[in-house]
Amino acid sequence: MATELADGIHWFGLTGVNAYLVEDDVLTLVDAGTPFDARAIENEIEDAGHAVADVERVLLTHYDFDHAGALARLPGLDATVRAGAADAAILTGERHPTLSTHKGLLQRVTKPFVRSPNSPVEPIADGEQVGSFTAYHTPGHTPGHTAFVSEEQSVGFLGDLVFEGGGTLTVSPWLVSYDTDEAEASVRSLAERAPAFDALGMGHGVPFVRDGDERLADLAAN
Length: 222
Known about the structure:
alpha/beta, Metallo-beta-lactamase, Chain A, seven-stranded mixed β-sheet, five-stranded mixed β-sheet, 6 helices, 14 strands, 25% helix, globular
């Protein structure tokens, strides 16, 4: 069942990964789970009082099997997908993950399971505004990784820039990242640039409902 983190902000706990639904200027889905999560996402959207066809925007924090996998499998989805340029190009098939890193190899292996969505995919630039959200380029986990923060909704969606475990945030680890040094720099940059926000939704772990910006700042400082 969908969990409401705040008014109009819903958390979907899927197969070891999170997705979110936000009642912004238009109904917005943030990330889309694995290819096997489509039915669960459809049910969670209905639990939140909507239908897949009501979703008009998808904010994709990054391209990965467990974040973009269900996009092409959601029945009735007719929404523009916004993602960082480098990852958007992989999603559409315009480019392939690099073979020069362990993370790129992992993406190559799982790519056949992730179909390009029928919906249009548009790159989003650092600092670009979409609805109430501002996009922040936060590379490291993937080259095009992007965090989305809304001051109006008081929420930040950080994808796999950070992981939660036992109530503690950590930076995306080496095993699943392109560049951990770059990920750490992205954490510090985001903590400096983003406005204050309460709810913090990450790709893996239990989201925080308050003091999200302070938790991010603590991670950046350490």
